[in-house]
Design goal:
α1 crosses α5. The protein has a single domain, classed as Vaccinia Virus protein VP39 (Rossmann fold, 3-Layer(aba) Sandwich), CATH 3.40.50.150. It has about 300 residues and is α/β, with parallel strands linked by helices. The radius of gyration is 18 Å and the shape is globular. It has a seven-stranded mixed sheet, sandwiched between helices. Helices cover about 50% and strands about 15% of the residues.
Length: about 300
């Protein structure tokens, strides 16, 4: 999971820079959320320096222009993905979910947003030690009391998720739970990713739900695709994408794990779903599949 530390900061950077971009700002589901900046500030000196650049008009333009050249439509996809995840989370809570577990949360503030908005919901952030320590510092520095948020450390290459959750005070495996694993599974070997997904039924009551992202195996295999170019860039840094799935493989996995109401959407689907209503015209990258399912 160590590779995720290299992606958490750029993801936060897209959200900060998008505030200065006329088109992308309209894709943000929560444009004024202060926690992206708070987490970057606590992440370290290099992140603080990058934050100042992303907050300036020129720095934001440079960052987004570079992103567009490297992987066209990636920033728009990321923002629309976040929008869809937030909507699915709200729907799950409306349908009776009382726990939200964000696994591999990085610097994303979604759990805090949910904990503050829903008094009857308890949230849990689970990630590597460095990430959890960063989030803890930011929460302490903010002075805000987040009584319905608990944090726990886990390395999913070393420990099963269900065992890690048992260590976190307040977590109850007999409650309906929403598990969010966004931008995580591609950094785990295929067998480890499937272990995590299969463990979810042991972590929550019947009718729990899961949201996760995977790399589209078909596009990853195409050397001309954006995700394939991204994979080569990631590999050049000494890291790698370690797992991917086809839609057929996800269907098969859903049957094996007795999931139901499997819903899959990619960048094209997100563009069709949101761009017309937001009045935005822009490219949205393909390369990932965003999945929602109910765990029996």
């Amino acid at each position: 999971m160590a590779e995720r530390l290299n992606t958490a900061v750029p993801v936060a950077g897209v959200h900060i820079a998008a505030r200065r971009h006329g088109t992308l700002r309209r894709l943000l589901s929560d444009p004024e959320n202060p926690w992206w900046e708070r987490f970057l500030t606590e992440h370290g000196p290099d992140s603080r320096k990058k934050l100042q650049g992303w907050k300036s008009p020129i720095g934001a333009w440079l960052a987004l222009t570079l992103s567009e050249r490297v992987y066209p439509g990636a920033a728009a996809y990321l923002l629309l993905r976040k929008r869809r995840v937030a909507e699915w989370a709200e729907r799950a809570i409306a349908n009776g979910v009382t726990q939200v577990v964000c696994v591999g949360i990085g610097l994303d503030p979604l759990s805090i947003r949910i904990a503050q908005a829903h008094p009857g919901v308890k949230c849990f952030d689970v990630d590597l030690q460095e990430v959890i320590e960063c989030r803890t510092r930011a929460i302490v520095s903010s002075g805000e009391r987040l009584e319905r948020l608990a944090l726990g450390m886990v390395d999913l290459t070393q420990e099963p998720l269900d065992r890690a959750l048992k260590r976190i005070h307040g977590f109850a495996s007999n409650r309906r739970t929403l598990f969010i694993l966004e931008g995580l599974l591609m950094y785990l070997p295929a067998e480890a990713a499937e272990r995590v997904l299969s463990s979810l039924k042991r972590c929550g009551a019947a009718e729990s739900e899961a949201i996760f992202t995977v790399i589209d195996a078909a596009l990853l295999a195409d050397p001309k695709s954006g995700i394939s170019r991204s994979a080569r860039l990631v590999a050049a840094t000494g890291n790698s994408y370690r797992s991917s799935y086809s839609r057929d493989a996800l269907d098969t996995l859903a049957r094996q794990l007795s999931w139901r109401d499997l819903d899959m959407i990619d960048g094209a689907g997100l563009a069709e779903r949101y761009l017309p209503e937001l009045g935005v015209r822009c490219g949205v990258a393909l390369g990932e599949i965003l999945v929602h399912t109910t765990i029996r």
